[in-house]
Design brief:
mainly beta; two-stranded antiparallel ribbon; 1 helix; 5 strands; 41% strand; Gonadotropin_bsu; hormone activity
Length: 134
């Protein structure tokens, strides 16, 4: 019976690593500039989901490599640019944003990801809204 429990535990740990729920997810970004007349609502995809991590309570007993704290992050990205309507001539009316093509569980790369979760962040328009569906 103990062999069955050990094999089940081993299978669960192996399957848990491969079955992480990290995938591209639909997301709406609201973009506005003070000088422009409209707010732009952009439909895009971001990486979101669950990645397996290991409890660091036993860090004295484990190797550093066993203490991974992975996040759901971009594997492949495509940048697109949208035009914000209602901007005066002296204002740059373009906004570039990432589109997640594929995602992975891994270390957070600050070159292209915001690795800090802010407590309160608003994502809404204060001006009349235009929809940009890419």
């Amino acid at each position: 019976m103990s062999l069955f429990i050990m094999m089940s535990l081993l299978f669960g740990l192996t399957f848990g690593q491969t079955a992480s729920l990290c995938a591209p997810s639909e997301y709406t970004i609201h973009v506005e500039k003070r000088e422009c007349a409209y707010c732009l609502a952009i439909n895009t995809t971001i990486c979101a989901g669950f990645c397996m991590t290991r409890d660091s309570n036993g860090k004295r007993l484990l190797l550093k490599s066993a203490l991974s704290q992975n996040v759901c992050t971009y594997k492949e990205i495509l940048y697109q640019t949208a035009l914000i309507p209602g901007c005066p001539r002296h204002t740059i009316p373009y906004y570039s944003y990432p589109v997640a093509l594929s995602c992975k569980c891994g270390k957070c790369n600050t070159d292209y990801s915001d690795c800090v979760h802010e407590k309160v962040r608003t994502n809404y328009c204060t001006k009349p809204q235009k929809l940009c569906d890419m």
